[in-house]
Design a protein that fits this description.
2 domains; Aspartate Aminotransferase, domain 2; 12 helices; three-stranded antiparallel β-sheet; single chain; Aspartate Aminotransferase, domain 1; seven-stranded mixed β-sheet; globular; binds pyridoxal-5'-phosphate
Amino acid sequence: MAGSPFVGVPLIDIKALDKKIQGEIETAVLRVLNSGQAIMGPDVEAFEKGISRYCGTNYGVSCNSGSDALLLALHAMGIGPGDEVILPPFTFFATAGAVCRTGATPVFADIDPVTFNIDPAQIENKITSRTKAIIPVHLFGQCAEMETIWGIADRHNLLVLEDAAQSLAAEYQGKRSGNLGAMACLSFYPTKNLGAFGEGGMVVTNDEEWAAKLRCLRVHGMEPRYYHKYMGWNARMDAIQAAICMAKLPYLDSWVKKRQEAAARYDFLLSEECLGFFLKKPAVAAKRLHAFNQYVVRVAGDERDALVSHLRSEKIGCEIYYPWPLHLQECLQFLGYGAGDFPATEKACAEVLALPIFPEITMEQQRRVIASCASYFRKSASKAA
Ligand SMILES: *Cc1c(COP(=O)(O)O)cnc(C)c1O
């Protein structure tokens, strides 16, 4: 059936990836089942060491999800009511949700339309005497413009917290994401570059005191047992998830390389089909290694939603990350933002489209994706004529 237009392409194929190392994952899972240690323990510790070594940081504190990693990091930094944290409005909700849940106020700064990451030029005029931190989100697997952000943070004495949920293995100036700020938050949600078979997250940092506070916070702020020093909660990681992630970690670099190759093939196919005008390919900024957790194009004109319907009708997986900006979300209306406040973000929300990408995606599958896009634009052009 290869090459048939009736064969769909999934947005992400988690099973295709796992099959190759199925034996290793099964061995790891069985070892945990037989160990009797369900939560935390040696597998979790080994995974924390593995990830912190991978990121080049001194400490890794695992937790239950990327969302909890953000919340733990903000709490460890002492951020709370009365504080302000600057972040982009074009990100997954968790980045802003975590800030709100500490009692602090998220303050949005618009994005750079080329990289989709926070635009450093928009940050400085958002800083007040209450600002405590900046959260650059390395969206889709590409690092934000850190050099400028470091300068701003230095001048104003602010902490930099990386939201690296989508950027494990990405690099900036030869340094891995995770080691580009005071702390970084990672997610092992199944669609991320290193996915658990369930939930998982981690905070990585070089600061020993913060690492100790993070470890305490994730067990109800308890130290010693049944004496509670901080207002913590249960954010512990399951041993099975850590063992699965650890079994996958040696393959991470080769998987990211395959993601980059797949991205290059999409770039080629878009040119080959002369679709460059309709679908603007993602840009890789200077001094970056883009980990391509997502391959996100911009769809010209008002065609995006009709293209999505067409692709779905042909069983081509695609997704919109993200269709509605954070400053216009219902639960964030109390912040007082309105439509038009962040034009680059609002335009991105109307135009972006993520195409299927995962390490095992084949040229044949990618040809089907691009052929389906091409057939849409042919139809749409003939309708207009
Ligand atoms: C996935 C993601 C998170 C949250 O991670 P979970 O593990 O799903 O809680 C936070 N920020 C960004 C940018 C993400 O993509």
